[in-house]
Structures are given as C-alpha cells and as structure tokens.
Fold each of these.
Amino acid sequence: MEENQSKFKKYLYNQIALILAIGGLGTGLIGIYKFVANPLQDLKTQAIELKQEELIKQLANLKDNDLHEIHLSLKRIEENEVQMGKDIVRLQTTTERLNKYLND
C-alpha cells in the first residue's frame, strides 16, 4: 500500500511539476512578447506624435496665411470705400454745378 501511495505521490508531483512548467513557459512567452511589442508600440506612439506636430504646424501656417489674406482683402475693401467716397463727392459737386447751371 505504501508503494501505491509512493507511486501516487510521484504521479501527483509529476503532474504539478508539468502544470507549473507549462505555466512558467506561458508566462515567459507573454513576457517576451510584451518586451518585443513595447518598443514597437513606442515607435508607433512617436510616429503619431510627429504627425500630430506636423499637422499643428500646417494648421498654424494655414491660419496665418488666411489671416494675411483676410487682412489684404479688408485693406482692398477700405481702399474701395475711400475711392467710392471720393466718387460720391465728385458726383455731388457735378450735380450741384449742373443744377446751378440749369437754374441760372
């Protein structure tokens, strides 16, 4: 009977050792995968950050260019308003002279 117990203990010990070995191997594989995957993830993160910085620069450039174009457009509008004011004054003086000439 003691021989059966000894065989059972040996069998149980072997099974536990096998389970622990498989678990250790699985844990090791997962650790290796994470070790290899993390640098790849870091590279992806850096690439995303570079793209984000480039997009921010492009947006700032577009904003600056648009503001410059709007400023130029407003300047042209102001120049047109001044010219229209001069034209209105010229028309008023011409009509006043014409009225004076016709009334005399």
Note: Residues 2-103 form the longest helix (102 residues).
Amino acid sequence: MTEGFCTRCGFKIETFKGLGACPRCGTKGIPCLSENQVNVSINVHELRVLCIWAENWALAHADVDEDVVYAIALRLRRQLGEKDTSLTLADELRALRDAGYDVDTNLPAGDRP
C-alpha cells in the first residue's frame, strides 16, 4: 500500500517522509493521501461543470499550475470507463478537431491532454 500519489502526475508515493517534491515530475504541490480516497455519487454533467470551472479559474490565474486540473480530469475520465466524455473545454476543442472541424481559439487549453 502506498501512502498516496502525486496530484499532478499520479505517481504512487510509498512514503511522504522527507519528501520535498514528486520523484517523477518534480512538482512541490501537496500530494493526495491514499487514506483520503473516497467514492462520490455525481452526475457526469455536474462533473463537467466542476472541471470546466476549475480549468477556467486555473487559466485565469498565472500563478496556478493548470496541469493539475488536467491531471485530475484525466483520472476522472478514466474512472468513467467506456463513456467518451469531455470533462474540460480542452476536451471539447479536441473532440471538435478530431471530428474534422477547424477550431481557432486563443485558449492555451486547446492542446492539453
């Protein structure tokens, strides 16, 4: 059992003792404790609203690492299983591009995972 994982890259961390940064990505953000893992009942639409709001907030604040928002959205998307669900505006833009539409935007989120 690991003590937790990096919020940004998902790397499983055996122990937080003496940890100053993630061993994989180097982020100094607060990692997630395994003991705090919970299951939540939420509608996919509600989840999209929360992710898009978080994405927009992160993009509006230069001192915020928006990669954390995309990493969390990716972990959530994986939990949805077979559903091909866009949880962020970046997901929506990518889906439009994949469908053959020419999408022009000034949002840096357009090329995020």
Note: The two ends are 28 Å apart (CA to CA).
Amino acid sequence: MDTDLIIKIATAAVVVFGAILGLFQFLTTKRSHVYQNSKTEMELLSQSIHAHEADSDYKTFLTDVRKEKISYLVFGVPIPNADLEQVIVYHRKAEGKVTTGDIAKAWPYRGPSTKPLSFRLSIDFKMQYMMALVYMGLCILAFFWGVVVILAHKPLVKEAITLVSISLIALLFTVWVNRGLFTAVGLAKLEERMSKGGRKGTLPPDISAVK
C-alpha cells in the first residue's frame, strides 16, 4: 500500500476518533450537569410541597410539577402528566419487554390520538421508515461494491476508499438519526404479537378500563 495513502488514512483516523471522543466527553459532561440540576430542583420541590402542606391547591400544583420532573429523569424526555398514566400502564403491561429508554426514543412517533398508548406508525412515518430502509440498502451495496473495487482494481483504490468511507458514514448517520423510528417499529411489532397472543401481559384495549 502507498505510504502516502497510509499517512492520509492514519491522519483521518486520528482526526475522526478525536472528534468522536471530544463529542462523547462533551455530551457526557452536559448530561451529568443536567442530571445534577434536576436532582437539585427535585429537592427544592419536595421542600416546597412540605412547606405548603396547608395550601392544598398550591401543593397539588407543585406535585404535578414534580411528576413531570420525575418523568424527565426516568424517561429522558418531558412527558406531560396527562400522558404519564398511559406510559406507566404501557410499561407495566409490557412485563419487562420494553424499557423506559425504548419509550423515550420512540415517543415522537407515537399515535397521539390513540388510546391506549401505541407506537404503531402512521402512514407518513411508515413512508419515512421504508425510505430509510431503501437508503440504507443502497449504502450497504455501495460499501460492498467499493470493497470489491479495492480488492480487484488497484488503480481505483483511492476512489473506492472514498466511496466506502462515505457509504459507511451515511449508513451509520442514517441509523443514528432514525434510531427512534426503528425503536417505534420494534415496539409496534411487540404490540401486535402481544395482541395476538391473548396472554397475560397483553397491552390493554383501553386505558380507562385499567384501575
């Protein structure tokens, strides 16, 4: 292999790895700070609720605020109190097959008008899912074709490496961007299997029937 090419690849690897490491450290530190701030807010809310024990209206208001804070800490996304009961029922009835992280990732793709909570995709999201799968398939084909070119056609190595790199980056980026959509698809399949199973753990047909 050309020494110049090795140097370029090594340089690119160092830059990319350094950028990924820096981004990871930044996000980890930011998440830690957010968590600590949330804990402080929770403690202050608890103190306020205790201090306003006599004022039932204000205590109820503070309790509702604390519920939303708790939902953010648990699920990673702010879930309104009006939807929180549905989420709790959904999580309980899934019997360990669904994590709070799954619900948080798939939350934007839920059916907001459905009751009980469901992640079965609407037509628009189904189209988005199919387009993502097609694009990922094209990226995979381009990646393997580039690998074949690298192995069989030495004069086109540089061009093939560029194609392989771009295809791999595009594939990983598509997976990362649509991770919530893929999680929602997985939850929808689980809901369908549990509905057909008719066994304990089946998601309830109506949340209002659950006490």
Note: Helices lie at 3-51, 56-75, 81-93, 100-106, 123-152, 157-177, 179-197.
